[in-house]
Amino acid sequence: MYTTRISSRGQIVIPKYYRDKLKIAPNAKIIFSEKEGQLLLSVLPEDPVAEARGMLKKNGSLADIVRENRMEELSREKK
User: Fold this and answer.
1) Would you state the pLDDT for residue 36?
2) CA distance readout (Å), 21 to 17, 53, 72
3) What pLDDT, in 10s, does the model give residues 6-59?
């Protein structure tokens, strides 16, 4: 477990271990979300198109996949 402090400007430093492990590059975009009182960070891909390749090879129809993604978006919007 690693600890860090929040600066007076609200900034934090992500420990090097996690930056390396999750391949977080300088100027990466991060999504903050909250779930059950915990703050979650998710790194946005640099190239969303390349990241999306192959996602339709999952089992199920395109409509099912779109519906599932929309439900996830709605749950994040409610928070």
Assistant:
1) 92
2) 6, 23, 26
3) 999 999 999 999 999 988 999 999 999 999 999 999 888 877 777 777 766 666
What does the block give as tokens for 37?
A: 């009182």
pLDDT of residue 61: 76
Element at 19 (helix H, strand E): helix 16-21
Domains of the chain: 1-44 (2.10.260.10), 46-79 (no CATH)
The rounded distance, in Å, linking the Cα atoms of 6 and 12 is 5
- Rounded to whole angstroms, the Cα distance separating 36 from 54 reads 32
